[in-house]
Amino acid sequence: MEVYIxxxxxxxxxxxxxxxxxxVFKSVHSVKIMSDTPNRMLIRQTTAKIVGxxxxxxxxxxxxxxxxxxxxxxxxCIPGEEELMYIGPExxxxxxxxxxxxxxxxxxHRA
Length: 111
Hints:
By secondary structure, this protein is an alpha/beta fold. It has one domain: 3-Layer(aba) Sandwich (Glutaredoxin). The chain is 44% helix and 22% strand. The chain has four helices and five strands, in the order βαβαβββαα. The chain has helices spanning 12-22, 40-51, 81-87, 92-110; strands spanning 2-7, 28-32, 55-57, 66-70, 74-78. The protein has a five-stranded mixed β-sheet, sandwiched between helices. It is globular and about 40 Å long. The chain starts with a strand and ends with a helix.
């Protein structure tokens, strides 16, 4: 599982998310958007690059921070610090496993 946090270096929410997730995960990739003012297009483009061809579970937003947790086949999106704190940084792994299981169940049910 790889964790990416996308945001602006000056954004307190971005800084807080990095601090909280670094306390739980060995490796957190912080992806800094180089902009002195909010640039939602850059956030969306950077998120899309990391998601790539993986199945995206959850709805990415265009605000700082965006938290992406990558598994083998999927990327689970946590669209901000508030959502991260609601889940609890220590519960992110369990949240990701549950989200991936639920997504697989939906795909099997549709087939």
